Amino acid sequence: QLRVGRPALALIPLIAGRRRIGNLILSYTQPHPWSDAELRLFRLAANLIATSVENTRHFQREQELAAVEERQRLARDLHDSVTQLIFSVMLIAQSVGPAFKKNVAEGERRIQRMLDLSQQALTEMRALLAELRPVSPVEQGLLPALRQHVDRISARERLQIQLIDQNYRPQVQTTEEALFRIVQEALNNTLKHARAKTVEIALGQTAGQIVLTVSDNGRGFSPENSAEQATESRFGIRGMRERVSRLGGRLDFDARPGIGTTIRVTLPDQPISLEHEK
Length: 278
Prior knowledge:
Low-confidence stretches: 224-233, 274-278
Structural class: alpha+beta
CATH superfamily of the largest domain: Histidine kinase-like ATPase, C-terminal domain
Distance between the termini: 72 Å
Helix content: 40-55%
Radius of gyration: 29 Å
Largest sheet: 5 strands, mixed
Strand content: 15-25%
Mean pLDDT: 82
Order of helices and strands: EEHHHEHEEHHEEH
Number of strands: 7
């Protein structure tokens, strides 16, 4: 360049993770001798630029993953709340006609239950459509929330449900929300498929783990290995596994024909700190 009088030009590769992701091009409008000091400075700048570009790409990937996770969360919440309520409305609607024929008061009572459930479903749906996180069902604690939910299900479905507190210690909100949703889904499965008369829910901790078991005395089932994935999808087990996996826990599922179904969840013990409680 100096010999022929051309404008100065230098090309410095942008390297990130041993990959060339671009080039830093330097130029002068006239001939210029590049000194070692200048090139060292420009190489340092190139390294900083490459790092910044790679971090930006990484951040974009994280945002995309976060969006996918948020969609999955919304799908789980939709399934755990609105879908269950609509299914209950459908079941009651199917029984209204026969109930009216036998007893007008019973028919009216079922219609009122339909109206109540429809209002709950509408509230949940509005929250999801507005892309707002629904009010946490465990704001007052997991055990009070479970007692309220169990009482509501027992009264509505005439199902005997026993909630056993095995020295449970309050956990962080994400853990308690996951446990509540798992119980909600397990009870929903019992109502849909099990034809059970009694359900036992036990919540406690042992050896640094939270342990939740939900057992019913329903008909159970014996899934074939080839249909295992479809069975898990049908009975909502896949969604439970996703919740448990996100918290580093384990879910065991046991269903035997004529005996019933038991779901056992173990999660790391993450109690609320004293500072948080204050």
